[in-house]
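Quick log. Single chain, no ligands specified.
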Amino acid sequence: MTREDVDVIVALCCARLGFVSGARGERGRDGRPGAPGLPGERGQRGFSGADGLPGVKGDKGDPGANGLPGADGLPGVKGDKGDKGDPGTNGLPGVKGDPGPLWPDVFVVSPGATSPFYASIQAAINAAVSGGERTEADPALVLILPGDYTEDVFLRKHVALLGLDRLNQFSTIIRGQVSCELTLEGGVREKTFATVAGLCIFPPSGKTAGIYFTGANSQKLILTDVAIEGSVPALLADNTFTVGTGTSQVLLTDSRLRSTALLSPALVVKSGSVEASRTDIWNRPPVGVSSSPNSIKIGPSLAQSQSATVALSDCNIEGNIQIDSSLSTSVTAGAIGLSLLRCTQFILNVTATPIRFVLVTPNATAGVTTLGVVLSAFRATAWTSGTAMIFGNPGGAIPVVNRLNSFLADTGVTGATLTGGSAVNTVMGAV
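-> predicted structure:
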């Protein structure tokens, strides 16, 4: 670089910084300063200085207020369907649940009914067994609507008859005989049974009974809210139970057996067992008759060893009771018997030709015919003081278990004797 170049650069810098002024004017003669000279020309712009170092970063300021939310964006384009996944593994089979409740098939009977209902009880029973005998696991129900049904009815096992009557309503009536002779199931009585409830049975004269419990197979008949009334026995039990296990049995609850004929006891038991609770057993004498007829008769009508027993609790009896074991070949104690627990018995009686509450003819073996009378009340229209209420003759001794019974005659006599003849009073001891 030459000296001239340096002088030019210095001049430029001075002009940039204002160090160079215009030409100095002439000095006045009088020593006063002359007029200012014209300004000199502006020098050329100097080069830019180098960038300074960056300043120190200041402290962080407070955050600004939140801005307003942006508008929702448009939905995106639906993506392509993904590939089908692989099938899952099969689950383990569930545990089998308990069986649901067992509901029987129902067959509805109504007078004059048409299909799918039945106009007769027997038609409904026949329909119930059209596919074969019912079993304990497959029962049927015949529902009988109120009305009169003039027909004989033959019961089948596990086919229950259900009317809508309660005792004494007489709105659902069978005018005929109901027969019970069932097909044995499982070789035992407990699986061979029929049920009748909520019905009235009026057997016509000439029939064997209102309910005829017969046959040789061991069986059971259950009666509830059943009223039977007619001139023949209301219930006749002579099933011999020679096939199968178990003594054939009739169970009655809240029922009534009534005879309207002097010579027809309301209840006749030739073989088998009849057990009744809260049941009326009546044979009321007609006007003009001075003594009660038989209301209950117990004992076989031919030589046989089968038992024949009646057990009554909370029952009302009108008429006397006859027990005849003379044709029984049994030697088993208690094979022929009567039990009264909390029962009442009334008889129409005259002292001139008296009758007994219970008259017994035993067989030759002592103890085969047995009675039990507990917590029961006996009433007669008239009585001779000291006369036996239960009398047995001839044959073997008849034990009569006795405890806490009472007696009264309408004439005021209270002094009766429980047993006489071959009937022997056996007092129960206090416990």
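Residues 17-29 have pLDDT under 50 and may be disordered.
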